[in-house]
Amino acid sequence: MKKKSSGFSLILILVFVLPLITFILTVYTIYLKNEMNLLDLQIKDLGSDYLSSQILEPEYSYENELILPEIQVGKTKAKVNYNIQNLNYQLLLDNSATLLKSSNVGAVKIFDSEKKAFEEALYALENGIDYFIFKNQNKYYLYREDYDINANDEQYLYTIQIYLFYSPALAIFPTMALREAGIPAVVYNGKLSPSNADYWSIVVGLFETAKESDEYMKNMDEQKVFELTGLGIKDRFRKGIYFTGVENE
Description:
Elements: H1 2-54, H2 62-65, H3 89-94, E1 99-101, E2 103-104, E3 107-111, H4 114-126, E4 131-136, E5 139-144, E6 155-165, H5 168-180, E7 185-191, E8 198-207, H6 210-218, H7 222-229, E9 237-243
Parallel strand pairs: 1-7, 2-9
Antiparallel strand pairs: 3-5, 4-5, 6-8, 6-9, 7-8
């Protein structure tokens, strides 16, 4: 009798309980699937409507932020008044012109007296006159754009080219690094032959004779220049440079 009762219970479970549980699970699964579909739709709606409402128009163009300022290579005008007693060679070099060309308006004078050279440079500095000062041993070379020479004549001097670039921006930063260390460097704007295209090189000093420039060039501290600029200068060479005197009105 007990065996019959157990068998009846098993049949009852198989016939009624299991299908009921299966039915309930099926209904619940369908419900969950529908809810997930609704949730997916809500997320899509949120992405299209909410995000578009949150995107703000920029107040300015980021493209403008990437435009680098133009680098000015040339004159430097004094911003303060200097006293001759407070002047030194480094200060005058720091405030001198950063650009020379193959042919330049003005001329170069050579002084044996530091005081006289500093006075002439100070006048240029205070009056916004383009100048460049260079000291070699006991001689002071001073270029000023207002210096004149004999009519129909040109002044020919030498300088030392240590590196060449095809952009002024690439030349100016090493030049400034050299100047801050007391090396009288300047940017030289020349023309390539035969294309006549511009180039910008770093040159050092002004020299009256080829012998003087060669002696200076031979004694240049290559390691110091490399540490300041990362540039090797083994291929440096003497370069001619012209000055035409003051332009006629």
